[in-house]
Every structure is written in C-alpha cells, then in structure tokens.
Amino acid sequence: MMHRPDWQALLFVPVGADRHLASAIRHRPDAVVLDLEDAVAPLAKSAARGVLRANQAALAAAGIDCVLRVNGPIRAMVNDLDAADLALLHGVIVPKCEDAHPLRNVAEVTGGAIGLIALVESPAGVQRLAEIAAVPQVVALMLGSEDYSAALGVDPDRGALDLVVGQLAIAAAPRGLIPIGFPGSIANFRHLDLYARQIGRGRDLGMRAVAAFHPAQLPATRASLAPPKAEGAWADAVLAAPEAG
Predict the structure, then answer these.
(1) Is residue 2 in a domain?
(2) pTM over 0.85, yes/no
(3) CA 78, CA 101: separation in Å to the nearest integer?
(4) pLDDT, tens digit, for every residue of 109-150?
(5) Which of 35, 58, 182, 180 is nearest to 118 (CA)?
(6) Which residue range forms the structural domain that includes residue 210?
(7) Domain count, the chain
(8) CB of 33 closer than 8 Å to CB of 67
(9) Over 50: is that where the pLDDT of 167 sits?
(10) Residue 178 class from Cβ within 10 Å (0-12 exposed, 13-18 middle, 19+ buried)?
(11) CATH code where residue 150 lies
(12) Domain assignment of residue 167, yes or no
C-alpha cells in the first residue's frame, strides 16, 4: 500500500554523508531526503549508490521516514532506484517536472507503490501543475525556488515567488497533496529570522511543509508552519469539547 505522508519538516542530506546523516537523525525531522541529485557530484554518484541502502537502514532504525531524490535523466533515475531498497522508501522526489512523463516513468519503475513528490523548478512546470498533480502516485508538490527564480531572472527573497507559491498550493489542495516550499531562498540558514518570516508567508499562501537544507532550520520551520496561538487554542477547544446531541 502506498505511504500517504503527513510531513511538515523535511531535511535534505547527501547520500553517503555519514556525519550529516547522523546529525539529521539527532534532530528528528519528519523525513530525511537522501539526495542523489544536486548534492552528489557526477563522478561520485556510483559510490553514493553503493552506500544508499546503508543510509536507508540507519533511518529505518531511527524510525524516520526516508525519501530519495533521484536524478532526472532516465538511465540515471533507473540506476538510482535499482540501488535503493524500495521497501524502506517512503517517497521519491522527481526533479525538474515540466509535465507528467518523468513521474510516470518513476511510477513504472517502482511498480506504482511509492508516493512521488513532484519537484517543479521552471515556469513550464508551473503551467502544467494540474497535469502533474493528477498523476495517481503523486502525494506532494514541491517548489524548487532557486532554479525557478533563476529561470525567471528574479531574486527569490524579494517577493517574486508569492504568485507561484499560491499556484502550487491551489493545485495541491483539491487532491489532498502536500504543498512543500516557501517564497524565499533555501540558503537562508544563516538568517533564520528572514527564513522564518518567509515560511510564515508561505503558510499564509497555503503551503504546509518545507524541506530544509540545514538542521538549524528545523525549529524555525516547525514554529512558522504551526497555527497561530489563537487559532491553535480555538482548535484545541473544539477538539476537546464533547459532541453535541
């Protein structure tokens, strides 16, 4: 049965980076994204695939969901998935989604049994969000803010991403998908106040999860995605009240 996640705070870790993986396990994100794409140099990918299952086993022993970001080219993607223990995968991030085809390719290789996170990194992908969201195995839509900003020639920290964040949240909502991302740069782990404000802005626009790149970002991620105190207190009161009639 396909895993239907309820993630809020995810954390990227390069495959084979044992120190970073140990740190991630200590910080307890909802899921660790083992990255075989951007975080691993081309000449190091083969060696990284060789230790992928050991990384997965470490996460399984810690009780943390394991997500894998595969490479985009189909041959590399197949090699990535062949190296993985599919039984220990809770999701696969499919990069550079500009239509449904790469998602269908991954679904075919995995037998359709693993949830897919569609990583949208270009205006072309945004134009086809409805098509992408309609793939049955998709459980989340993720914004690749850096590549998307580069494609438009805009600064991700100057409000240019508000529109696309809203579009992604709208595409995710009718199908119950998790919208992952925020209107800002993923590199702001040294500026946590700015990072937290941007995540809060994303929450106001409908985003419900963030994939961080540094453990220091996790507390700000969770706090900024939580309901405001007044809303949280109201929700707690409603849940605690006995049913009428």
Answers:
(1) no
(2) yes
(3) 14
(4) 999 999 999 999 999 999 999 999 999 999 999 999 999 999
(5) 180
(6) 9-240
(7) 1
(8) yes
(9) yes
(10) buried
(11) 3.20.20.60
(12) yes
